[in-house]
């Protein structure tokens, strides 16, 4: 049951220029995670799914943008992003994962 719960913590990797630079320079990888996930849950989920050792986790809440749909205003959902720093010698290949 614990492994099933940890598998639902990570939603998707975020692939952008900023995340590619963080991966190259600081060995950090960026993931979209569940809104109620804690740092410890994120660390355990990454270690379980990718078989790596995590050094640190930083999280931030991303606010949804206000968008106009014709006359009405709408709001995109808020979500949570995690920057996961791996220990030296460990890496994640997101193209094959």
Notable traits:
97 residues; alpha+beta; Alpha-Beta Plaits; four-stranded antiparallel β-sheet; two-stranded antiparallel ribbon; 6 strands; globular; ribosomal protein; Nucleotide-bd_a/b_plait_sf
Descriptive account of the structure:
The protein has 97 residues and is α+β, with helices and mostly antiparallel strands. It has one domain: RRM (RNA recognition motif) domain (Alpha-Beta Plaits, 2-Layer Sandwich), CATH 3.30.70.330. Helices cover 29% and strands 36% of the residues. It is built from 3 helices and 6 strands. The chain has helices at residues 2-7, 17-26, 39-50; strands at residues 10-13, 28-33, 54-62, 66-69, 72-75, 79-86. The strands form 2 sheets. It has a 4-stranded antiparallel β-sheet with strand order 1-2-6-3. A hairpin with a 2-residue loop joins β4 (66-69) and β5 (72-75). The two termini are 23 Å apart.
Here the CATH topology equals Alpha-Beta Plaits
The amount of beta strand, in percent, is 35-45%
The low-confidence parts are none
Q: Give the end-to-end Cα distance, rounded to a whole number of Å.
A: 23 Å
Question: How confident overall, as mean pLDDT?
Answer: 91
- Indicate the CATH class: Alpha Beta
**Total number of domains:** 1
Count of alpha and pi helical runs = 3
Biggest sheet, in brief?
4 strands, antiparallel
Order of SSEs, N→C? HEHEHEEEE
The radius of gyration computed from the alpha-carbon positions, rounded to a whole number of angstroms, is: 15 Å
State the share of residues found in helices, binned by percent.
Answer: 25-40%
Q: Spatial order of the strands in the main sheet? A: 1-2-6-3
Shape: globular
Question: Which second-level CATH architecture applies?
Answer: 2-Layer Sandwich
Number of strands: 6
Q: Structural class, from secondary structure content? A: alpha+beta
CATH homology group: RRM (RNA recognition motif) domain
